[in-house]
Each structure stands twice: as structure tokens, then as C-alpha cells.
Q: What sequence folds into this?
């Protein structure tokens, strides 16, 4: 929106050309989302408290969590509002990728909102039934995958890129739709599973989004893409603005979500942010890099799969409790230690993912 306004104003003052620079708009989008989160946060928390929209806590988990009962939840709406406003202000609204990532993010956010609303407002412990949650996730994920497949401008946009090997490009054909669907829906649920401790999910999300912003910027620039031997995806550079708004909104939310949390993001935030990371990785053709950088999300998800599988097959549990962060808590790690160590692991994994840009 502001980009369009700046282009009009350049006819009267050439200084407005500066807003055409993508790097500047990434910075401004990040700062705008951060400011909006910090500004709206106290008001939203106050309203959630007034309406008694508080978190229910499982009594079979770590005993330290019982004190968190009643903490305002559904705070992820704060993140989504900040992302949407900032992206619309600083993104190029003629770019179809911008609208697609916003649609997917807000769509998954709507699913999470319904689930949270039923749990904390209607006091229905089941929330949105799993089959309906998965159905609507599938509708949005498959819809986005089909749009990307039929609007692909070159074969590389529907091929699998293998990091570390500059010449390994695997044409996927129709399987691209399946892979994209799995990445979007899978990353959405992976972030949701990770969101169990104060600040545990949001900081890795911020870090991974910052890493993906580098890939988005490079993929949208023909010179950088050719130099780094990554696929050039015209228009993908605008996703750097979107990723910046995720980072800004996430940091603003962390101000209130850090231990001890004043507000939880709920499914409305976790499902949406996971889907956002997934759709960006699919567009810039870096699904494997997302798997690396989002290693914490992967470990949390795998721990749940192994725990459920082991219990059903053998009647025994591998971990004291799943997801993985609860296992470490029950081993005696204080909650802040689990959180910060998972953050540190994510920093290392994001750096490893970024290293693949040159190690090809």
C-alpha cells in the first residue's frame, strides 16, 4: 500500500524512490510489526482477562504448569493482526505470492481460532474435532499447493532442490502438489506441538523466519540466485517482507510471552505461524532447508509419533512425556532451561541452514 503511494509521490519528489528498495521495506515491515505488537499487546491481554479467556492446564503434566491455569490465551491473534497490517503496508500488493501467504496464514489462524474458542469460551475440552481440523487444514494446504503448481512459470519452481549439491534438481511433476501439501500442513502442526512452554515456539519461529527471509531475498534476485546456485523464483523477494513481519510480530509477542508468560498464543497463533513458514519454504523451493532450520519443531513432532507408536505397539513409553520438552521437564530441567536450550539449538540449526547457501 505504502509502496504504491511512494511510487506516486516519486513524480513530485525523487527521494521517495528509496521505498522501492526491498531491503528497506523488509526493515520497515519488521519494525512496524514489532511496534504494533508492543502497542496492542497490553490492550489485548486486558480484554482477554476481562472475558476470562484463560488457558486450561492438563493435570497429568509437570506440576509446575498447574499455576499457569487461567493465563490468557488466543494471543496469537495479536501476531496475525500485526503481520497482516505490516505486510499490507510494506509489501508489493501486485505480487500474488504476498496474497497467497497471507491467505494461508490467516486461513490456518481461523482454524486455530475456532479450536481455541470452543475450548476456552464454550468450555468444550475437545475444541474443534481433530477430523474437522485436519479437513480444513487439508483444504487450505491443498488449495495453496494447486495454485502454486498451476501458476509455476518454470520447471524449477516445481522441482525438489537438494542442498549441498548445486546440480541436483529433481523434477516432481504432480508429486509437487503432495509435497507442498505435506510441508504446509506438517509444519503447521509441528509448531503447534512445540507451543507448550513460555516462549518456546515463538523464538524458533522468529529465527527460522529470519533465515527464510534470506532465501526469499536471494531467490527473487536473478544475480544472487545464479551466484548461489539456488532456483530463481521471480517475485519471491517480496516474501522477505512477509518473513520480516513474522520476526517483528513474534518478537513483540515474546515481550509478553516470555517466562513467566502473561499470555499464550494458542492454536490461533501456532497453526498459522507453522503454515506461514511452510508456504514460504515451498515457494522459495527450500523444503529441506526448512527441515534443517526447524529441527526443534521436527524433534518435537517425531517425539510424539514415537511415543504414540511405541505405546500402541508395545504398551511402553519411550519418553516420560511427549512432546519432547515435557520429557526434559520431568527429568528435572527447570522450564527456563528447557526453553533457552531449545532456542540455542535453533540458532545453530538456522546457521547451518544458511550455510547451505554457499556449500553447494
A:
Amino acid at each position: 500500500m505504502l509502496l504504491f503511494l511512494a511510487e506516486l509521490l516519486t513524480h513530485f519528489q525523487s527521494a521517495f524512490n528509496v521505498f522501492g528498495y526491498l531491503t528497506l521495506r523488509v526493515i520497515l515491515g519488521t519494525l512496524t510489526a514489532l511496534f504494533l505488537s508492543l502497542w496492542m499487546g497490553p490492550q489485548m491481554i486486558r480484554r482477554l482477562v476481562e472475558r476470562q479467556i484463560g488457558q486450561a492446564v492438563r493435570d497429568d503434566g509437570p506440576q509446575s504448569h498447574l499455576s499457569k491455569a487461567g493465563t490468557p490465551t488466543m494471543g496469537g491473534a495479536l501476531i496475525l493482526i500485526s503481520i497482516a497490517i505490516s505486510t499490507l503496508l510494506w509489501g508489493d500488493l501486485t505480487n500474488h505470492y504476498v496474497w497467497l501467504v497471507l491467505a494461508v496464514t490467516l486461513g490456518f489462524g481461523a482454524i486455530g481460532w475456532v479450536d481455541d474458542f470452543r475450548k476456552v469460551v464454550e468450555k468444550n475440552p475437545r475444541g474443534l474435532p481433530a477430523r474437522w481440523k485436519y479437513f480444513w487444514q487439508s483444504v487450505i494446504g491443498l488449495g495453496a499447493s494447486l495454485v502454486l503448481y498451476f501458476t509455476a512459470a518454470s520447471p524449477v519452481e516445481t522441482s525438489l532442490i537438494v542442498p549441498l549439491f548445486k546440480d541436483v534438481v529433481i523434477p516432481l511433476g504432480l508429486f509437487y502438489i503432495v509435497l507442498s501439501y505435506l510441508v504446509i500442513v506438517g509444519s503447521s502442526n509441528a509448531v503447534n506441538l512445540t507451543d507448550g512452554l513460555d516462549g518456546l515456539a515463538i523464538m524458533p519461529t522468529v529465527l527460522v523466519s529470519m533465515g527464510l527471509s534470506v532465501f526469499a531475498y536471494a531467490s527473487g534476485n536473478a544475480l544472487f540466485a545464479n551466484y548461489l546456485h539456488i532456483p530463481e523464483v521471480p517475485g519471491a523477494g517480496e516474501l522477505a517482507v512477509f518473513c520480516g513481519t513474522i520476526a517483528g510480530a513474534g518478537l513483540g509477542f515474546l515481550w509478553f510471552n516470555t517466562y513467566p508468560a502473561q499470555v499464550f498464543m494458542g492454536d490461533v497463533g501456532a497453526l498459522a505461524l507453522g503454515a506461514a513458514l511452510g508456504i514460504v519454504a515451498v515457494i522459495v523451493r527450500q523444503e529441506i532447508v526448512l527441515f534443517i532450520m526447524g529441527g526443534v519443531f521436527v524433534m518435537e513432532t517425531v517425539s510424539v509419533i514415537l511415543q504414540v507408536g511405541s505405546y500402541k505397539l508395545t504398551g511402553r513409553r519411550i519418553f516420560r512425556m511427549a512432546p519432547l520438552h515435557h520429557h526434559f521437564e520431568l527429568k528435572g530441567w527447570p522450564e527456563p532451561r528447557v526453553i533457552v536450550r531449545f532456542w540455542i539449538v535453533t540458532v545453530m540449526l538456522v546457521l547451518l541452514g544458511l550455510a547451505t547457501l554457499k556449500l553447494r
